């Protein structure tokens, strides 16, 4: 999803305010936003918040094979997740140019500055090393994204402890935190990143710009320093030509910022280790939740009472059945008759009446119907055969009478018709 750009009016108002030395969050041009840093209850996790920008970092480690070029050095990988939750312009599982630049700068500040002793991550030269992975997830974005991500990653690395191992002849034993104490990483220094905005070709400096302010500026410069006043990285986002005085001014501001934040990180890690050494589980990210949120375990939630409501008198038209009064009643037995209330005489009488009705209302089955129909067919066939025999006898008599010479043919027919007995009589004779 594309983010709508700033309008001309908004850009003009922001630039006019910056040139007059004012900002919309009531800061001066050389003032930083408040930093909130929290470490989790699990080792190697941290959340950093700078203004409305929020980043979470988590560190993990696993055993892997080293490269042939560096057989006795561990590996540090950095992965960044730009979720759409932070900015609607981000796409899921797609970093884009912005994400790739963020990964490259984090690798430049953390890995290439050699702040971590990678040789201490070697277990067996040429066969086994520790592969440390730093997962950086952007939760919210509102300017100074690199500063927040770098601070969260450094704090998570300081808070992380790898499992303890012991070398055997043919294998390596990895111990849990209950068997042997985990080992923290060997960190030489903590590079702290600072983003400084440039306005009017570097004549004006805007420290820690927000997202809208960064869209109105001419460019920015990123300076990474440690508390020893060493410059670990320097990156310029635009092609502005800066003088040495302008760069020195930016570096001085970044050094002051690095000293303050290094003290904050050290104090937080020290407090966490003291709590763990006293066998107390730290609160972790639960500190970031608002205190107004009530849970079932808090005392305030137990004191909450439901509002008092007035009960109206029940009307007489309601049914007498009250489901709330019934205790341990089977819902399937509603409307059924109990066994004690059944009378044996009534049951016998009902059974007798049903038997009588069934006997009186016996219907003819299908087999009986088929037998009756077969008998009727046989009777009809016999009658048809008898009728055929009678017709044949009559024809023979007519032929014998026509052969006589003294009687004409016409008279013989008439005689036959007159003297012919009825068919019913012939059938009766044959039956007899």
TrEMBL record:
One of its GO terms (biological process) is U5 snRNA 3'-end processing. Keywords: Cytoplasm, Nucleus, RNA-binding. The keyword Heme does not apply. It is found in: Cytoplasm; Nucleus. Its main location: cytoplasm. Residues 31-163, 189-256 form the Exoribonuclease phosphorolytic domain. GO terms for cellular component: cytoplasmic exosome (RNase complex); nuclear exosome (RNase complex). One of its GO terms (molecular function) is mRNA 3'-UTR AU-rich region binding. InterPro entries: ExoRNase_PH_dom1, ExoRNase_PH_dom2, ExoRNase_PH_dom2_sf, Exosome_comp_Rrp42_subfam, PNPase/RNase_PH_dom_sf, Ribosomal_Su5_D2-typ_SF, Rrp45. SUPFAM superfamilies: Ribonuclease PH domain 2-like (SSF55666), Ribosomal protein S5 domain 2-like (SSF54211). It comes from the Eukaryota. The keyword RNA-binding applies. Belongs to the RNase PH family. PANTHER family: EXOSOME COMPLEX COMPONENT RRP45 (PTHR11097:SF14), EXOSOME COMPLEX EXONUCLEASE RIBOSOMAL RNA PROCESSING PROTEIN (PTHR11097). This is Exosome complex component RRP45. It comes from Caenorhabditis remanei. The lineage of its organism: Eukaryota, Metazoa, Ecdysozoa, Nematoda, Chromadorea. The gene is Cre-exos-9.
């Amino acid at each position: 999803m594309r983010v709508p750009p700033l309008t001309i009016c908004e850009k003009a108002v922001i630039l006019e305010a910056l040139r007059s030395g004012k900002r919309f969050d009531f800061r001066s041009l050389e003032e930083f936003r408040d930093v909130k840093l929290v470490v989790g209850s699990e080792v190697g996790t941290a959340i950093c918040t700078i203004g409305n920008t929020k980043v979470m970092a988590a560190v993990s480690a696993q055993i892997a094979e080293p490269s042939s070029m560096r057989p006795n050095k561990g590996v540090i990988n950095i992965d960044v997740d730009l979720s759409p939750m932070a900015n609607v312009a981000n796409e899921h599982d797609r970093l884009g140019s912005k994400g790739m630049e963020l990964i490259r700068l984090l690798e430049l500040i953390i890995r290439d500055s050699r702040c971590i002793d990678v040789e201490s991550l070697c277990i067996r030269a040429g066969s086994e090393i520790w592969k440390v992975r730093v997962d950086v997830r952007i939760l919210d974005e509102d300017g100074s994204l690199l500063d927040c991500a770098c601070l969260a990653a450094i704090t998570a690395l300081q808070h992380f402890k790898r499992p303890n191992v012991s070398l055997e002849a043919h294998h390596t034993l990895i111990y849990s935190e209950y068997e042997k104490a985990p080992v923290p990483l060997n960190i030489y220094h903590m590079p702290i990143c600072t983003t400084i905005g440039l306005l009017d070709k570097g004549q004006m400096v805007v420290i820690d710009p927000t997202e809208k302010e960064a869209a109105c500026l001419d460019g920015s410069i990123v300076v990474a320093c440690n508390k020893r006043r060493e410059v670990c990285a320097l990156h310029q986002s635009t092609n502005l030509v800066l003088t040495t005085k302008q760069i020195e001014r930016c570096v001085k501001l970044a050094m002051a910022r690095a000293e303050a934040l290094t003290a904050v990180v050290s104090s937080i890690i020290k407090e966490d280790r003291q709590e763990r050494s006293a066998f107390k589980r730290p609160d972790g990210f639960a500190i970031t939740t608002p205190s107004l949120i009530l849970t079932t375990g808090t005392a305030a939630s137990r004191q909450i009472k439901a509002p008092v409501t007035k009960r109206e008198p029940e009307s007489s038209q309601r049914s007498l059945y009250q489901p709330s009064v019934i205790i341990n009643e089977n819902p399937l037995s509603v409307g059924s008759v109990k066994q004690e209330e059944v009378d044996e005489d009534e049951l016998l009488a009902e059974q007798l009446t049903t038997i009588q009705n069934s006997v009186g209302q016996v219907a003819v089955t299908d087999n009986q119907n088929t037998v009756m129909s077969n008998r009727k067919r046989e009777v009809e066939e016999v009658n048809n055969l008898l009728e055929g025999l009678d017709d044949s006898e009559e024809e023979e008599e007519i032929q014998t009478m026509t052969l006589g010479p003294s009687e004409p043919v016409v008279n013989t027919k008439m005689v036959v018709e007159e003297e012919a007995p009825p068919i019913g009589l012939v059938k009766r004779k044959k039956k007899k």
